[in-house]
Amino acid sequence: MKKKITAFFKKNPNNLYKSRQLIKKLEIITEPEYESLKSHLHSLYEEGVLERIGKRYKLKTELPGKSKNSITGIFEIMRDGNGILQVEDENKTGILVRHGRFGCAFPGDLVEVEISQKSGGKKNEIIQEGQVLKVLNRNRSEYSGTLNKAGSFYYLVPDLPEIYKNIYISNENLNGAVSGDKVVIEDLVWDDYKLNPEGRVKEILGKSGSHDVEVISIAKEFKLPYKFSNETLHEADNIPESIDKAEIKSRVDFRNKRVFTIDPDDAKDFDDALSLEMTETGNMIIGIHIADVSHYVKPKSNLDNEAQKRGNSVYLVGKVIPMLPEKLSNRICSLVPGEDRLTYSVIAELTPRGKVVNYKIEKTIINSKRRFSYEEAQKVIETGEGDLVEDILALNKLAKILRQKRMSSGSINFFSEEIKFKLDEKGTPVEVYRKEIKESNNLIEEYMLLANKLVAEFILSKKKNKEIVPFVYRIHDRPDKEKMKEFARFVKSLGFIVNFSETPTTKQINALMEMVKGKAEETLVNELAIRSMAKAIYSTENIGHYGLGFANYSHFTSPIRRYSDLLVHRILFSYLSGKKGELYQEKALSEICTHLSATERNAMDAERLSVKLKHIQYLTSYLGYEFNAIISGVTNFGIFVKLTDNLAEGLIHVRDLSDDYYIFDEKNYAFIGRGKGNVYRLGDKITVKLVKVSQEKKQIDFKLSRRER
After folding, report:
1. Residues 85 and 40 in one domain
2. Could you give the C-alpha distances from 6 to 13, 456, 596, in angstroms and in order?
3. One domain for residues 300 and 410
């Protein structure tokens, strides 16, 4: 939106416009887009890009930050503690801002940086360096954290570690808050980098440490709307739970079929179900039934506007911030057993060898006969006994064939280790364990992948017939050559033989994943491989999905928790029902895709912080204990380690490597002892002692006990 506004004013540099006049000019079609327009107009005015005369805006003749030695961009802090200025130009320039030269900038702020020098980087490339001159626009207007008191002074310890300065609060700005409260502050004032910023308490969330307050605090930090508006809740309340008879007649009826769900034990929103029928020829007709959220959530309604704004549900530890109100997500749309539910289904006929013979996409109605947890379904697979045993065993056998075909065709066999926490009634973690992926998980995954793939192929078949179908694809670009060179160099440093240096084939990556399987380095290599890849995003331009090895892919199977899937349902139905008019304009749909990719990344960051906070809470009781660990990162200020059992990550400060004087070897990801020659490098197995846990600073500190031989 910001680029769109700026480009428009550059084309019309001498004209004045009110925000309402820009609706037509910029093809604004939804209320959230208009709110975004107003917000960015104000931001561009604050940054000095636009000037305001009354209620009208025009382009300012001189743009800020364009002098000979300065440049503007978004400031971020890297893992090594230094900053970088992300500049949006054709070369995607990054200006290094060393620690101590941040000025008054926090991550995400739009800043002006003076380019002060050039230095040699890896392989003698030239790196531009600079220092922050001024902050043009703050990334956030609110900051949450814990209120503390030192003497007569109050200060906020921010929840996010990257907000690296405590924020001072005067007595007159406490707004009733006391030390120990979790609060939200606003009106940040920070003009002198030698001093701490100051703010004013806007809201008291509650006492620091409680689970509910922690969730609200994370929501505030990541700008996640955790409450629905009264209008949205009222709209949801007015949706009838009974299904109209005429609607039932218009659908393919699966209520007498053997339909069932398999979900996590603690799930409440069941948005996918399966059914199986055998043909006389021995083929299998598989119904992949997905909750028909689009029947209830209409375009431009309050429910739709809020779902689009949220983009997705956010799964924090012990709490879900849903995309839709509970009446829809857990009741009307959830495919609970024994209840009639409206669904949108991909019904595919496959041979015993996994070839898709035919498929159709139909509006359906189901009545689930059984709700399985993954553990219950796994027991059926392992014992050959239980409810719907024949269906589950047949579906599992075919799923393994589909998985093998997918891997042979180029899908990458990545895995992401997931940690589960067992919480007490107060939300305190009492147990941490790794989530184990078994055949029942893979069974569901394969049929969801199949449905998503077939839906995208259906739309592509329309395009081949010269029909213009703006659509939401899930795309994944090929990895960057330089990142993969660096990744290959790292893997070789661990002692594994790899035969790629630039862009590898998916088969080469799979060979590496197989090589490290079961080894201590497996989790680390997986993580770094994923980090070296491009990020999967939503787009109206289909370039395929590199990681899955699919030429065509979309998201169709989770409309309760992903807005992208709801859009896909609507677009599909508009074409299947013969409505040739475009439901979404290409341009508007592309902007929604960009927004959804951003909300997805934001949700992942919030979920990661939630896991980190629970790790910190859990480890508080284990000070002085020793743990097996692996070195997961090496920086100039210390060694990051990941515990083998529960995957908690912390830091060994370089000052605590006290048995020698250590030199940081950036090229080899290592610390090398100058006197004794001890080497600690990425991937090494070590034993560490937990020495400090800080809930306020979100830090876990270890000391080295010994290195495993």
Report:
1. no
2. 10, 34, 22
3. yes
Kindly report the backbone phi and psi dihedral angles of residue 190, in degrees, each rounded to the nearest multiple of 5, phi listed first. Answer: -155, 100
417: domain range? 230-473+551-604
Q: Which of 137, 163, 196 is the last residue of a domain?
A: 137
CATH at residue 159? 2.40.50.690
Are 373 and 444 in contact by the 8 Å Cβ rule? The answer is: no
Alpha carbon distance 506, 483 (integer Å): 15
CATH number of the domain encompassing residue 124: 2.40.50.140
Cα 589-593-594 angle, rounded to 5 deg:
120
| H or E stretch covering 657 | none
For 503-525, the pLDDT digits (tens) are 788 888 888 888 888 887 788 88
Give DSSP secondary structure letters for 336-391.
-TTSEEEEEEEEEEE-TTS-EEEEEEEEEEEE-SEEEEHHHHHHHHHHS-STTHHH
Q: Are residues 307 and 406 in the same domain?
A: yes
SS3 203: strand
Count Cα neighbours of 585 within 13 Å in the Cβ-side half-sphere: 8
**59-to-15, 517, 702 alpha-carbon distances in Å:** 8, 58, 54
Q: Is residue 531 part of a domain?
A: no
Name the residue type at position 395.
Answer: L
Domain count, the chain: 5
* Alpha carbon separation from 454 to 44, 175, 272, 347, 472 (Å, rounded): 43, 56, 16, 10, 14
Task: Name every residue whose Cβ is closer than 8 Å to that of residue 148 and which is 6 or more positions away in sequence.
Answer: 154, 155, 156, 157, 166, 179, 180, 696
Instruction: Quote the CA–CA distance of 659 and 673 in Å, as a whole number.
Output: 9
Provide the pLDDT for residue 464.
65
As a whole number of angstroms, the distance between CA 456 and CA 438 comes to: 28
Residue 537's pLDDT is: 97
428 and 377 in a common domain: yes
Residues 6+ apart with CB under 8 A from 384: 393
Mean pLDDT value across residues 462-486: 83
| Beta strands 181-189 and 198-207, pairing class | antiparallel
Q: Dihedral (C-alpha) 416, 420, 426, 428: value to the nearest 10 degrees?
A: -80
Residue 188 and residue 242 in one domain: no
Assess if residue 481 is contained within a domain: no
Instruction: Report the pLDDT value the prediction gives residue 118, as an integer from 0 to 100.
Output: 60
Token pair of 254, please? 């699966």
| 546 assigned to some structural domain | no
Quick count: other Cβ atoms within 10 Å of Cβ 602? 16
Confidence of residue 65 (pLDDT cuts 50, 70, 90): very low
pLDDT tens, position by position, 292-303: 999 999 999 999
Tokens of 501: 């240096």
Whether residue 431 sits in one domain with residue 316 = yes
Whether pTM exceeds 0.85: no
The β-bridge relationship of strands 259-263 and 370-373 is parallel
- Indicate if the pLDDT at residue 124 is higher than 60: no
Helix or strand holding residue 84 (H, E): strand 83-86
Percent residues over pLDDT 90 in the chain: 57
Within this chain, do residues 293 and 392 fall inside the same structural domain, yes or no? yes
List residues bridging with 51 in a β-sheet: 58
> Where do the H-state alpha helices sit in 540-698?
563-576, 586-619
Strand, coil or helix: 544: coil
Greater model confidence, 71 or 31: 71
- Kindly list the distances between the CA atom of residue 276 and the CA atoms of 54, 339, 342, 349, in Å, as whole numbers in the listed order: 66, 19, 18, 10
Q: What per-residue confidence (pLDDT) applies to 496?
A: 83
Q: Is residue 543 part of a domain?
A: no
Q: How far apart are CA 243 and CA 250, in angstroms?
A: 12
The residue to which tokens 């949006």 are assigned: 88
